[in-house]
Each structure stands twice: as structure tokens, then as C-alpha cells.
């Protein structure tokens, strides 16, 4: 059950970078993560074992969103450009009529070859498809860097999950099956600047509407622009501004279920800029969530037992609520579901 809070806790991961990690310090870290996920469901992680900085992450986002509109649309998912073949990975443009969700995004999954045998290839959305990339010559280096960031964030997620497994009374390798053919997504997000800043006052204006994340856990890089807010159990939205050097971690709905309801997937949203928070480059706000996700055929069940769900089916059901697919008629969604 989420508790009331007025700021997010900070969890120091420096023990993970030590050459010799004492079992006691790992257990203590797991217990600390358990406590924050059982109360706020959200925390700042500091001293994470990552080789890249926030500047590196947002330079890549800025380089990607700086390419031409035509080039971005050549990478758009089939939903937006019917002649494109990518259905799940790639670009989604800012959708008109979505005033509370003014964002464009670019999503990459675990690097794989286009020949990879995909479980869901015959379905409308091929969750396991290869990534698509800008053809611009100078994006080759950036592609390598983005793939490396995906790899490191995946490794960090795996470490956090093994600590949580122990804190939940299970062996450290309890969640290892989640890593097989993992569908984890690195999503570059850009909230373009608006012609007028949000009005100050009671009427809150948003650029990302309130939601919980659907999967296991999310690791979020946000820039200094701010605007992220997290819902406390007393109904108050608590600001989660950028803390230097930190990444935000939060629990998704499915991990709430996996934990037998011990962990909470907390509602969050992003407020529109009220002026004064603009990035110096004038590009609006960037954030880069990494969604840790199991493989398509992984059966995910509560630590307390039960039938569980096949992860691919869970995602396809959840897609109906995702704003990036909101414009699709129901019949299109149905085609994304496996035949029963
Ligand atoms: O942009 C942000 O800071 C949060 C984005 C987010 O919550 C999401 O993509 O699920
Ligand atoms: Fe989210």
C-alpha cells in the first residue's frame, strides 16, 4: 500500500561498483529497495553503475530529435506510416488532439538481427522485431552508444531484480528467466516547446497524463527541465525534480502483481512548463525511460504462486491503453492480440 510522502527517497547504489561486494551490504540494499517499493513505489538512485552520464543520454536524444521530420517519419511505426514495416520499434510523432500528451518518441529494443525468429511475427504488432535507425552516416556512432546504454540499463535492472528476489525471500536468480529474449525498451522522449507556457493557477496543464507503468520496472533519466510529479496516497502530487546524477526508478503494474501486492506501481504525470524551465537549447523537455520487460513467451506469476500471465499477451492487452496507439480503432487492437 502506498504511503503519503512529500519527497522521493534516495537509494545509494555505490556498493554495486565495489570490487568486493559484501553479502551483508547487498542484502541491506535489497531490503532498502523493498521498503521504498512497498511505500512510495518511486525513488532516486544515485551512484548507479553506469558508464554514461546524463549529458551523454540527452545529447543522443537531442541529436535524434534534431534530424529532419521526413527522416523521423521514415522510422515511424506502421500505425503512423502504413508503408513502413516496423510495427513496434521506431518513432512515434506528436499526435494531434492529445493536448495532455504532447510528446514524440523513439523506441529501441534489445539489439537483434532482422532475421531473428519472432514469436509474434504473424500478429499485427511484432514485439520482437529488429530496431530501425536513421540512415544519416553520423548516426552509426550514436546507434552504438544507444545500444550500449540499453545493455547497461538491462544489466542494472537485472541486478536490482536479483536484490529484490532475495528481499522477497527467493533465491537471487529467481527472476533470471525474465532476461531470456527480454523485450526491454529504451525510449527517447521529447516534449516540444509550446507556443505559450502553461497558465499558472489551479488548472494544471500536462504534457504526459497520469498513468502507472505497465511492466516490471522503469529506470528514468530526466533532464533539468523538471515537471515530473508522483501521486502520494493523500492525493497530493509530489514534484520529483531532477536530482543531479540520479536516475528515477519505479515499479510497474506487473511487478506489483509479481510481488504479491507488496510493491506499489505509483501514478505519475508530467506538468507542462509554466515558463522559466525551458532547456537552454530551446528544444523543450527530454526524458529517457528504460522499461525493463521479460521476453514475449515468459510466464510471469506472483511470488505467492498462481497461474500468471504470458508476458507478450499482457503487453498486447495493455497496448489498448497506451496513448501512442490510442488512435487505432478497436478492430486494429484486436489484430494485435493472439488468436484464441
Ligand atoms: O517524461 C517523464 O519524465 C516520464 C515519462 C513516463 O512516465 C513514461 O514514459 O512512462
Ligand atoms: Fe511512466
Characterize the structure shown:
This is Fe2OG dioxygenase domain-containing protein. The chain has 340 residues and is of the alpha+beta class. It has a single domain (10-330), classed as Jelly Rolls (Sandwich). The chain is 25% helix and 19% strand. Helix 1 packs across helix 4 (139-167). The longest helix is centred in the middle third of the chain and has 29 residues, at 139-167. The relative contact order is 0.18. Mean pLDDT is 88; it is low at 329-340. Bound molecules: 2-oxoglutaric acid (AKG) and fe (ii) ion. Fe (ii) ion (FE2) is lined by residues 211, 213, 268.
In short, what is this structure?
This protein has 340 residues and is an alpha+beta fold. It contains seven helices and 14 strands. The site of fe (ii) ion has 3 residues, from loops.
- Assign a percent range to the helix content: 25-40%
Instruction: Pick out the low-confidence regions.
Output: 329-340
> Which strand order do you get reading across the main beta sheet?
1-2-10-7-12-5-4-3
Please count the helical segments. Answer: 7
CATH architecture annotation name: Sandwich
Amino acid at each position: 500500500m502506498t504511503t503519503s510522502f512529500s519527497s522521493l527517497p534516495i537509494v545509494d547504489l555505490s556498493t554495486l561498483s565495489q570490487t568486493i561486494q559484501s553479502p551483508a551490504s547487498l542484502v541491506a540494499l535489497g531490503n532498502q529497495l523493498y521498503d521504498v517499493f512497498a511505500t512510495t513505489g518511486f525513488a532516486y538512485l544515485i551512484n548507479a553503475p553506469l558508464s554514461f552520464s546524463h549529458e551523454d543520454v540527452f545529447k543522443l536524444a537531442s541529436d535524434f530529435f534534431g534530424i529532419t521530420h521526413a527522416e523521423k517519419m521514415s522510422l515511424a511505426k506502421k500505425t503512423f506510416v502504413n508503408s513502413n514495416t516496423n510495427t513496434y520499434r521506431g518513432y512515434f510523432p506528436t499526435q494531434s488532439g492529445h493536448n495532455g500528451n504532447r510528446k514524440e518518441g523513439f523506441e529501441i529494443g534489445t539489439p537483434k538481427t532482422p532475421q531473428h525468429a519472432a514469436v509474434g511475427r504473424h500478429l499485427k504488432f511484432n514485439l520482437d522485431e529488429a530496431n530501425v535507425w536513421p540512415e544519416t552516416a553520423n548516426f552509426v556512432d550514436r546507434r552504438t552508444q544507444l545500444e550500449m546504454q540499453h545493455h547497461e540499463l538491462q544489466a542494472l535492472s537485472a541486478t536490482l531484480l536479483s536484490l529484490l528476489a532475495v528481499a522477497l525471500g527467493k533465491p537471487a536468480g529467481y527472476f533470471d528467466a525474465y532476461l531470456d529474449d527480454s523485450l526491454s525498451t529504451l525510449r527517447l522522449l521529447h516534449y516540444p516547446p509550446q507556443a505559450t507556457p502553461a497558465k499558472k493557477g489551479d488548472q494544471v496543464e500536462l504534457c504526459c497524463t497520469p498513468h502507472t507503468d505497465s511492466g516490471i520496472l522503469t529506470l528514468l533519466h530526466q533532464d533539468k527541465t523538471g515537471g515530473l510529479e508522483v501521486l502520494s496516497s493523500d492525493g497530493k502530487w509530489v514534484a520529483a525534480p531532477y536530482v543531479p546524477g540520479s536516475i528515477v526508478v519505479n515499479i510497474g503494474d506487473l511487478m506489483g502483481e509479481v510481488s504479491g501486492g507488496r510493491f506499489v506501481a505509483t501514478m505519475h504525470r508530467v506538468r507542462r512548463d509554466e515558463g522559466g524551465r525551458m532547456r537552454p537549447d530551446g528544444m523543450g523537455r527530454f526524458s529517457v525511460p528504460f522499461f525493463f520487460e521479460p521476453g514475449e513467451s515468459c510466464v510471469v506469476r506472483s511470488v505467492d504462486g498462481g497461474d500468471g500471465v504470458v508476458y507478450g499477451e499482457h503487453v498486447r492487452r495493455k497496448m489498448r491503453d497506451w496513448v501512442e496507439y490510442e488512435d487505432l480503432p478497436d478492430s486494429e487492437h484486436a489484430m494485435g492480440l493472439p488468436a484464441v
